[in-house]
Design brief:
Main location: nucleus
Structural class: mainly alpha
Subcellular location: Nucleus
Protein name: RNA polymerase ii-associated protein 1
Family: Belongs to the RPAP1 family.
Number of strands: 10
Strand order of the largest sheet: 1-2
Radius of gyration: 47 Å
Oligomer: single chain
Low-confidence stretches: 27-51, 55-74, 78-97, 179-204, 278-283, 731-740, 873-879, 1331-1336
Distance between the termini: 123 Å
Mean pLDDT: 80
Pfam families: RPAP1_C, RPAP1_N, TPR_RPAP1
Number of helices: 65
Helix content: 40-55%
Shape: flat
Largest sheet: 2 strands, antiparallel
Length: 1405
C-alpha cells in the first residue's frame, strides 16, 4: 500500500514517495471513480430555451460537418476494444531514466489536458471585416423602447437587444449580408427534405411491411431491398390460387390482432403518403417527424364563423389557431336539472367548503365549481374528481383539493352530511386510498402542500366534538380517566395466540393494516412520527399547522399505551416539541391577536400532548416528568396570572387550564407533588377567593375555568397525603421516595374555605337556579373535593373526631337539608330523564360516520328545527323555523345534571358513613326521591336498548347509578325490586376498568336479600295462595321412577335462602379477574402509588357478557370437556354445588326478572342450560340439579319463549347449535337412563318450526335412542300442536319415520310421543291432494308412491292400521289418537288406487 505524505516531510521525502509510486507502476491506485457529465456534449437539435439573438448573417450552432471532439474515456474504451492501451494508462518502461518524461506520461492534471486541446476547424467559417466608418468612434446605438413594445405585444417575450435586431436588421450592427449563408436550421430542413424525397423514390417500390428494424445500420437499406426482392420473386413464381392458400395459412397461424395491426399500419401510411404526395420514408430523422407534426397541426380546415360555437376574439391569448373543441368550453352551460326531474342516485358533489350541493342548485360559473367534464351543468366536484385534483402537477390545485377534502371529512365525521348522502363518506374515502394520498402529501417539498396534507389528516383523525365532551367531563368523578380508541380487530389480533409455524404465517401488508387499524398503519408502517419530526425541525410550518400536528399526535396517543410509547421513543420528536413549544421563557411583541409563529412560544396543544401521554401509564408519566422537568413548566404557567404570561388572552387561559390538567394527571400517580408545596401560598390565596369568584362570576365559571381545574388538582393531593400515611405505616421507604413528604396536616387547611364556598354555592343554586341556570362544573368539583375529604378524614388517626362530627352536623343541618328540599334541587333532578344516554331510543341513533378501523367516542351533530321568537308579524312561518344542530348525546349538554348529582351522592354517602345520625336527614330524602326513582324505573324499562350503552360518556351515568345503589344499601328505597333491576342492567353495561364496580355489585347488591323483595317469606306465601288455581305444581317421574313434584314457590324459597352460597360460588368463578379487580380498586380508591394507568382498555366493549349468569356453568362444562372423563366418573362435589347455584339463580331470574332475562336470546339461554346435562356424566341425575332443570323446563315451555327460539342464530362460543345438540344426543344415548327431564329437553328442538336436520339427527342417526324417550303424553309440557304442525314435507324424514314404524323401533307403549308424531305426518302425507293419473308425476307423487308401497307391503298390521285410519291426535285415548272406523270416500279411493297398484294390504277396510 502506498503511503501518503505526512505533515513535516520535506522535498526529499516527497521525491522518495514519488519514486516508490513510479516503481509500483500505479497498480495500487484507488479504484474510486467519479462520473462527471460531459460539459462539451452538444444538445444536437434540441431547442435552446435561452434568449438567443438570431442574426441572419451570423451562424448559430455547430457545423454538422466539423469534426466532433471525443472524450478521452470513450477514446480509451475504443482503443481497448481494438486491443490497444487505453488513454491515461500508457505503457511505461521500467528502465526509463528520465523522471520528467515518466511524470508527463502519467500526469492527468492540467498539463495533460492542455496538451490534448484540438483546435476547431475554421476553414469553412465566413469572416466579414467590419465596415469602415467616417467617424473616429463608433456611433452610439439607441433603442426605441416604445416602438418595440408596440410591435412586440403579441410576440414572445425577448430582450431589448433581440427586439432591436429584429426591427433594424443585422446590417445596422455591421454584418455584411452579402456574405451570409442559410442558417443551420434551414440547411438542415433542406437536407432532410432532399433525403426524404430521395427515400421516397427508392421506397416507392419497396416493402410496406419490412422497415429494417433490428438490422445493421450500415447496410440496412440494402438488406431491406434484398428481402423485398426475394419476396417479390417468390410471389411472381406462384399462381393466384397458391398465393391465396398461403395467405390463408398465414392468417390462421398469426394472431388476428397482429393482422389487424399490419392492415391498419398500411392504411395509415397510405394516408400519410397521400397527404405528402408520396410514400413516407422508413427511416426519418427526428426533425422531419417534428416538422410533419407541425404541418399537420397547423393544417386545420378552415371553419366558417357561423359553424363555430362562439365567435372568437382577437384579444384572446393563445387562440391564433381556431380550435372548435376549445370553443365548446366557452359556451354557456345548460341549465341544471329541476328538482322534479333530478331524481335520486346522483353522485354527491361538494363545494370548496365541504357542503353537499343539491342537484338543482344554480351557482354562477365564476365560483369555479364547474371545471369538470362529467355533468357539466352541475356545480361542485365529486370525491373522485377531488382525488384526481389532489394529484395534479399544479401546486394550487393540490392545495385546494386537500383543503376541500379536509372540510368534507370534518363535516362528515360530525354528522352534518349524514342525511344528505346514502352511504357514509369517511369509510368510502378510506377505501379509496386517502391514507396513502395524505402520506404522500406530507412528503412534498412545498410547504403549502404539506400544510394542506396536515389539514386533511387532522380532519381524518381528530374529532373536536369528542374532545369537547371529554373536557366537559373533566371536573366530574373519574373525569381524568380516558378510554383507549383501539379498534376491536386489533384487540382480537393481540388476544389470539401466536402461531408456532412462522414460515406459513402470512404477514400483513400495509393495506391490510390500514383496513384493520388506521393509527397503527400510520405509526408502524408509514413512519408518520419521523416525518412529523422532520417537518417541525426543518420546514418550521405556520402556527395553524403546528397546532394541528400536535393534536394529531395527541389523537395517536389515545389509541393505546403502545402507540404512546412509540411517540415518546421516536428520536428527537418530543425533545423538539418540548424545546420549541413548551419553553419557560419567551417574548411576544404583539399579544392582542393570534400568533403566526409558535416557535419559542408555549402552546396549549403541546401541554395537552404531554398530559395525554402521561395518561397512558405510570412509567411513561414518570419518565416525562423526570426528563423534561415538568414541574418547572407547571410553576411557570400556573403561578402567575393569565394576563402576565405575555400571550393572547385566550391562549394564556388555555395554557393554564392544560397545565392544571397535566398537574392533575401527574398527581394521580403521586408525581409532581412538590409543585403543591412550591405554590402553597398561591394555592391558599386562590382558594380564599373562590367564594368571591362564585358570587361575581357564577355564569362564567364553565368547565374550562381555572378554579374548577384547581379544585380537581387539590382533590388528588388529598389522596397523596392519605397514601403517604398508609405507606408510612407499612414501612416502605422505597415507595415513599417517589412522593414528596406530604401528610394530612398539609391539606386540612383547604377544607374550611372550600366548605364555606360550597355552602354559598348550594344556597345560591337552591334559590336562583330556576332563573339563572348556573353551570354546575365548579360546584361539582367542590362537592367532589368535600366527598373525598370527609371520606379520607375518617381514616386519619390524628383527627379530632368530636370537632369533625360537629362540623359535619352543622354542614348537614344548615346546608344540605335545606338544599335537598328546595326547588332548585328538584329541577336538577327532573333533568335526569331528558339528559340521559340510557333513555335514547334506537330510532334516535345516528348512523356511524367512521369505519371500525378508526373508532371514535361517537359524538355527532344531529339537525333539529328551532322556532324563532321574533315578534315581527310580517315574518313568514317558514322563516320562523330554522334548522339548528344539537349533540346526539344529551348527557353532554350544558345543563346535564349527572356529574353534579354523582358528586352529591358521594358527599351524602361519605357523611352518612361518618355520622350515622345524619342518615335519615340527608340520605333518606335523596334515596326516596320520586323523580330519581322514576328515572331508575325508566332505565329498567329501556333494558339497555340504547345505542349509547357502551359509550365512554355513559360511564358517568353508570357511576351515578352505582352510587345510588350504595346509598340503597343503607336506606331501602320505596321499590327495592327497581334497585335490583338497576343493578342487573348496570352489571352488563360496565366496561373495562370497572372491575371494582362489578365485584362490589356482586358482593353487596345483586345477591342481597334486601334487594329481592319478592323472596320474602310472606310474599312467597301470598303468591302461592293466589296462584293455587294456576296449578303450578310439576309432576314428573325420574329415571328411577321416583316421583318428582316441584312447585314454583318451593323452588324460589330455596333460592332465596341460598343467596349467600350462590354469591360465594359466583365470586369463586370470577376469581380469574382478581388482578384486574385490584387495579380497578386502586383507581377508584384514588391510591396514587398503586395506580398503573389512567387509560382504560377499550371504550365500546362491555366487561361482562349479557349471559354472565351462566359463566360458572360454562366453566364447569369446559373443565369436564378438557378432562374428557369417561362414562361412570361422577362430577366433583364443588362442580355439583356450582352447577346447582347457577341453575337456582337462573330459575330465580327467569321468574322474578323476566324483562332482564329477555335481553338474552331464548336460544342462548336454552343452550347454556343444556350444558348442565353434558357437564358431567350423572350430574343431571342429582336431585337438586334435576329439580331446577325441571323448573327451567317449565319456563322454557311457555309458548312466548318457544316462539322466540331460533336454532339458526349464532351463539357466542359455539360453532352452531346443531353441534351442541349432537353432543347432547350422544350424552342422552349413553347415560340418560331415560330421564324424563333430559328427554323433554331433547324434544324441544324437534318442533316442526325448526330445521329438519335436528329431527333427522334423532330419527335417522340414532334409531336405538327412540326406545328410551319414554315420555307419557300427559307429562309433555310443550304443546303437542308444535310437533304436528306444520305438516312434514321432507321426504327423507318421512321415509325414516315410516321405517321406524315398520321395524317396531317406535311403538305406542314405550314411545307414545314419537309414535304419535310418526303416524300423524306419514298419514297426512299419504292422503294429501294429488294430481290425476294422466298428469306427469312430480317428485312428491313419486315419493308418496314409494311410501304407499312400503305401507302396503309392511307386515306390521297395528302400525299400518294406525297410519291408514289415523284421524287426529287425542291424548285422552290409549295411543293418543282417534281413528276412523271407516275411511271417508276420498281417502278410500286413494287407498284403493294404491292397493290396486301394489297388491292387497294387510289391513282391510
Amino acid at each position: 500500500m502506498n503511503q501518503r505524505p505526512k505533515p513535516g516531510e520535506d522535498e526529499d521525502d516527497l521525491l522518495k514517495l514519488q519514486q516508490q509510486f513510479l516503481d509500483s507502476g500505479g497498480s495500487q491506485r484507488s479504484s474510486v471513480s467519479i462520473k462527471r457529465p460531459d460539459k462539451r456534449k452538444t444538445l444536437g437539435l434540441e431547442q435552446d430555451s435561452r434568449d438567443v439573438v438570431n442574426m441572419e448573417g451570423v451562424q448559430i450552432g455547430a457545423d454538422p460537418e466539423c469534426p466532433v471532439k471525443k472524450l478521452k474515456f470513450k477514446e480509451g474504451q475504443a482503443c481497448v476494444s481494438e486491443g490497444k492501451a487505453g488513454v491515461g494508462r500508457p505503457v511505461v518502461e521500467e528502465t526509463m531514466e528520465d523522471l520528467e518524461l515518466a511524470m508527463d506520461g502519467k500526469d492527468s492534471s492540467v498539463a495533460a489536458v492542455l496538451t490534448s486541446i484540438i483546435e476547431r476547424d475554421t476553414r469553412r467559417e465566413v469572416c466579414a471585416a467590419p465596415r469602415l466608418g467616417t467617424q473616429a468612434f463608433p456611433s452610439v446605438k439607441t433603442i426605441s423602447i416604445s416602438a418595440l413594445q408596440k410591435e412586440g405585444k403579441q410576440r414572445k417575450k425577448k430582450s431589448l437587444f433581440a427586439q432591436q435586431v429584429e426591427v433594424q436588421g443585422p446590417e445596422h450592427f455591421g454584418v455584411d449580408c452579402s456574405l451570409r449563408r442559410a442558417p443551420f436550421r434551414e440547411v438542415r430542413k433542406i437536407t432532410c427534405e432532399d433525403d426524404s424525397s430521395r427515400e421516397r423514390k427508392v421506397g416507392s417500390s419497396g416493402s410496406r411491411i419490412i422497415d429494417g428494424t433490428g438490422l445493421n445500420l450500415s447496410n440496412k437499406r440494402a438488406e431491406v431491398e434484398q428481402i423485398h426482392q426475394e419476396n417479390s420473386e417468390k410471389l411472381a413464381s406462384m399462381s393466384e390460387q397458391e398465393i391465396l392458400e398461403e395467405q390463408q395459412k398465414l392468417l390462421d397461424m398469426i394472431d388476428p390482432k397482429l393482422v389487424e395491426f399490419i392492415r391498419k399500419k398500411k392504411t395509415v401510411r397510405s394516408s400519410i403518403d397521400k397527404d405528402l404526395g408520396g410514400p413516407s420514408s422508413t427511416s426519418e430523422s427526428f426533425s422531419v417527424v417534428k416538422e410533419r407534426k407541425r404541418i399537420e397541426k397547423h393544417s386545420v380546415d378552415v371553419v366558417s364563423e357561423s359553424d363555430l360555437p362562439i365567435k372568437p376574439s382577437k384579444t384572446w391569448v393563445h387562440m391564433d389557431t381556431v380550435e372548435k373543441e376549445k370553443l365548446e368550453w366557452l359556451r354557456d352551460l345548460p341549465p341544471p336539472p329541476s328538482a322534479n326531474s333530478a331524481g335520486t342516485g346522483h353522485p354527491a358533489r361538494f363545494d370548496f367548503e365541504g357542503n353537499v350541493l343539491a342537484v338543482d342548485v344554480d351557482i354562477p360559473v365564476k365560483m369555479g365549481l364547474h371545471h369538470h367534464g362529467d355533468e357539466p351543468e352541475r356545480a361542485g366536484y365529486t370525491l373522485e374528481e377531488i382525488f384526481q385534483l389532489s394529484r395534479s402537477s399544479n401546486l394550487q390545485q393540490r392545495c385546494l383539493a386537500l383543503h376541500t377534502l379536509a372540510k368534507i371529512i370534518s363535516k362528515a365525521k360530525s354528522g352534518q352530511l349524514s342525511d344528505k348522502v346514502q352511504s357514509p363518506i369517511v369509510p368510502a374515502i378510506l377505501d379509496g386510498g386517502v391514507l396513502m394520498l395524505l402520506r404522500w402529501g406530507l412528503d412534498d417539498t412545498a410547504a403549502a402542500v404539506v400544510a394542506a396534507a396536515v389539514d386533511a389528516l387532522h380532519a381524518l383523525l381528530w374529532n373536536p366534538l369528542d374532545e369537547a365532551g371529554l373536557e366537559m367531563m373533566w371536573s366530574w368523578y373519574q373525569g381524568d380517566v380516558a378510554s383507549a380508541l383501539t379498534p376491536t380487530a386489533t384487540l382480537e389480533k393481540e388476544g389470539r395466540p401466536e402461531e408456532l409455524d412462522e414460515e406459513n404465517q402470512e404477514e400483513e401488508t400495509d393495506a391490510d393494516v390500514a383496513r384493520r387499524d388506521v393509527v397503527q398503519a400510520l405509526v408502524l408502517r408509514m413512519d408518520l412520527l419521523v416525518r412529523f419530526r422532520y417537518i417541525l425541525d426543518s420546514m418550521r410550518p405556520q402556527a395553524d399547522t403546528v397546532i394541528k400536528m400536535l393534536q394529531i399526535l395527541a389523537r395517536l396517543a389515545q389509541h393505546s399505551a403502545s402507540v404512546a410509547y412509540e411517540i415518546v421513543k421516536c428520536p428527537g420528536l418530543m425533545d423538539k416539541i418540548v424545546k420549541e413549544f413548551v419553553p419557560t421563557s419567551w417574548s411576544v411583541k404583539v399579544v392582542t391577536g393570534p400568533i403566526s409563529d409558535l416557535y419559542g412560544v408555549p402552546v396549549p396543544a403541546a401541554v395537552k400532548l404531554l398530559r395525554v401521554l402521561c395518561q397512558a401509564g405510570r412509567n411513561l408519566a414518570s419518565g416525562l416528568v423526570a426528563k423534561y422537568s415538568v414541574k418547572l413548566f407547571l410553576l411557570r404557567f400556573v403561578s402567575v396570572e393569565a394576563s402576565q404570561l405575555q400571550l393572547p388572552e385566550r391562549e394564556a387561559a388555555d395554557l393554564q387550564i392544560e397545565s392544571l390538567a397535566l398537574w392533575r394527571t401527574c398527581a394521580a400517580y403521586g408525581l409532581a407533588t412538590d409543585v403543591y408545596f412550591d405554590m402553597y401560598s398561591d394555592v391558599v390565596r386562590h382558594v380564599g377567593q373562590f367564594e368571591n369568584h362564585w358570587s361575581s362570576l357564577a355564569p362564567c365559571l364553565n368547565h374550562r375555568g381555572f378554579d374548577t381545574h384547581l379544585v380537581s388538582v387539590l382533590e388528588k393531593v388529598l389522596y397523596i397525603a392519605d397514601q403517604s400515611r398508609s405507606k408510612a405505616r407499612a414501612n416502605s421507604p422505597d415507595r415513599l421516595a417517589a412522593v414528596y413528604e406530604a401528610d394530612w396536616s398539609h391539606v386540612t387547611s383547604l377544607a374550611q374555605p372550600l366548605l364555606n364556598c360550597s355552602k354559598k354555592i348550594l344556597s345560591d343554586i337552591g334559590t336562583t337556579y330556576p332563573q339563572q341556570k348556573q353551570e354546575l362544573y365548579f360546584p361539582t368539583s367542590c362537592i367532589n373535593f368535600l366527598a373525598s375529604f370527609f371520606g379520607l378524614e375518617g381514616q386519619q388517626s390524628s383527627r379530632d373526631e368530636i370537632s369533625s362530627l360537629d362540623r359535619i352536623e352543622q354542614f348537614c343541618s344548615f346546608c344540605l337539608e335545606p338544599f335537598l328540599d328546595c326547588y332548585g334541587f328538584r329541577l336538577i333532578v327532573e333533568y335526569l330523564c331528558p339528559f340521559s344516554n340510557l333513555l335514547v331510543t334506537p330510532a334516535e341513533k345516528s348512523e356511524p360516520t367512521v369505519p371500525p378501523s378508526l373508532p371514535s367516542h361517537g359524538v355527532l351533530l344531529i339537525p333539529e328545527m328551532s322556532v324563532s321568537t321574533s315578534a315581527d308579524p310580517s315574518t313568514s312561518a317558514s322563516s320562523q323555523h330554522r334548522e339548528t344542530s344539537k349533540l346526539n348525546m344529551s348527557i353532554l349538554s350544558k345543563h346535564s345534571p349527572f356529574g353534579f348529582l354523582t358528586a352529591l351522592f358521594r358527599l351524602v354517602l361519605s357523611l352518612s358513613k361518618r355520622h350515622k345520625q345524619m342518615i335519615p336527614k340527608i340520605l333518606t330524602p335523596l334515596v326516596k326521591n320520586k323523580d330519581i326513582l322514576m328515572y331508575m324505573r325508566k332505565t329498567c324499562t329501556a333494558s339497555n336498548s340504547s345505542p349509547f350503552c357502551n359509550s365512554v360518556f355513559t360511564r358517568a351515568e353508570n357511576l351515578l347509578q352505582h352510587t345510588w345503589l350504595k346509598c340503597c344499601v343503607f336506606v331501602p328505597c320505596e321499590d327495592m325490586s327497581v334497585a335490583h333491576r338497576v343493578s342487573l342492567n348496570l352489571l352488563s353495561r360496565l366496561g373495562h376498568g370497572d372491575e371494582h364496580l362489578v365485584h362490589d355489585l356482586i358482593t353487596t347488591v345483586i345477591f342481597n336479600q334486601d334487594f329481592i323483595c319478592e323472596g320474602a317469606a310472606m310474599t312467597l306465601t301470598s303468591d302461592a295462595m293466589a296462584n293455587l288455581s294456576l296449578n303450578d305444581n310439576l309432576h314428573l317421574k325420574s329415571a328411577s321412577q321416583e316421583e318428582i313434584t316441584t312447585s314454583r314457590s318451593s323452588l324460589l324459597q330455596d333460592v332465596y335462602n341460598s343467596l349467600a352460597k350462590i354469591r360465594g360460588h359466583y365470586l369463586m368463578a370470577f376469581g380469574g379477574m382478581e388482578k384486574a379487580v385490584l387495579q380497578s380498586r386502586n383507581l377508584f380508591m384514588g391510591k396514587p402509588l398503586e395506580t398503573s394507568s389512567l387509560l382504560l382498555k377499550c371504550a365500546g366493549e362491555s366487561l361482562m357478557p349479557k349471559d354472565w349468569i351462566y359463566l360458572p356453568l360454562i366453566h364447569v362444562y369446559n373443565k369436564a370437556a378438557q378432562s374428557q372423563s369417561a362414562s361412570g366418573v361422577s362430577a366433583s362435589r364443588q362442580s355439583l354445588e356450582m352447577v346447582t347455584s347457577v341453575l337456582q339463580w337462573t330459575y330465580a331470574l327467569e321468574v322474578w326478572r323476566p324483562v332482564e332475562m329477555g335481553q338474552i336470546s331464548a336460544t342462548v339461554r336454552l343452550s347454556r342450560v343444556l350444558c348442565a346435562f353434558i357437564a358431567g356424566n350423572d350430574l343431571f341425575l342429582e336431585k337438586p340439579v334435576n329439580r331446577y332443570l325441571a323448573g327451567l323446563l317449565r319456563e322454557f315451555s311457555d309458548q312466548k319463549v318457544l316462539d322466540k327460539l331460533d336454532f339458526e342464530e349464532k351463539i357466542p362460543g359455539m360453532t352452531s347449535f346443531y353441534d351442541l345438540y349432537q353432543e347432547v344426543l350422544d350424552h342422552y344415548e349413553a347415560v340418560s337412563f331415560g330421564d324424563p327431564v333430559f328427554g323433554l329437553f331433547v324434544l324441544l328442538p324437534l318442533q316442526q318450526r325448526h330445521s329438519s336436520m335436528l329431527r333427522k339427527a334423532v330419527w335417522g342417526e340414532r334409531r336405538k335412542m327412540l326406545r328410551t324417550l319414554r315420555i307419557p303424553l300427559t307429562e309433555i309440557l310443550i304443546p303437542l300442536q308444535n310437533f304436528l304442525q306444520p305438516e312434514e314435507t321432507d321426504y327423507e324424514l318421512l321415509y325414516l319415520q315410516l321405517s321406524a314404524l315398520s321395524s317396531d323401533a317406535v311403538q305406542s307403549r314405550w314411545s307414545p310421543m314419537l309414535y304419535l308424531i310418526a303416524v300423524h305426518h306419514v298419514n297426512r302425507f299419504l292422503f294429501m291432494a294429488h294430481g290425476t293419473t294422466g298428469e306427469i308425476q312430480t317428485e312428491r307423487e313419486i315419493a308418496r308412491e314409494q311410501i304407499w308401497k312400503q305401507v302396503i307391503v309392511s307386515n306390521s298390521k297395528e302400525q299400518v292400521k294406525d297410519v291408514v285410519f289415523y284421524k287426529q291426535f287425542n291424548i285422552l285415548q290409549e295411543r293418543g289418537m282417534d281413528l276412523y272406523e271407516a275411511l271417508p270416500p276420498s281417502r278410500q279411493a286413494t287407498y284403493n288406487l294404491y292397493t290396486s297398484k301394489f297388491g292387497t294390504s294387510s289391513v282391510s277396510s
